[in-house]
Design brief:
Largest sheet: 3 strands, antiparallel
Radius of gyration: 12 Å
Number of domains: 1
Shape: globular
Structural class: mainly beta
Distance between the termini: 32 Å
Number of strands: 5
Strand content: over 45%
Length: about 60
């Protein structure tokens, strides 16, 4: 299922074009936005949870 260079999160624009990559030391399986302004990206990986403040805002949840 890929290699170590693919460990992390790929970022896509609304048209589906890849525009970035957040490298992690392990495979990430799930992501979500959180925080007061929904501008903190949480990335759940094999053994850890990583977070990063980003320059965008995630969609509001239900």
């Amino acid at each position: 299922m890929g290699n170590a260079q693919q460990d992390g999160v790929k970022i896509f624009d609304p048209s589906g074009k890849a525009i970035g990559f957040i490298g992690l030391p392990e495979r990430s399986a799930n992501v979500c936005f959180g925080g007061v302004k929904r501008n903190r990206l949480f990335m759940a990986a094999s053994h850890s949870v990583y977070s990063l403040f980003v320059n965008t805002q995630g969609a509001p949840g239900g």
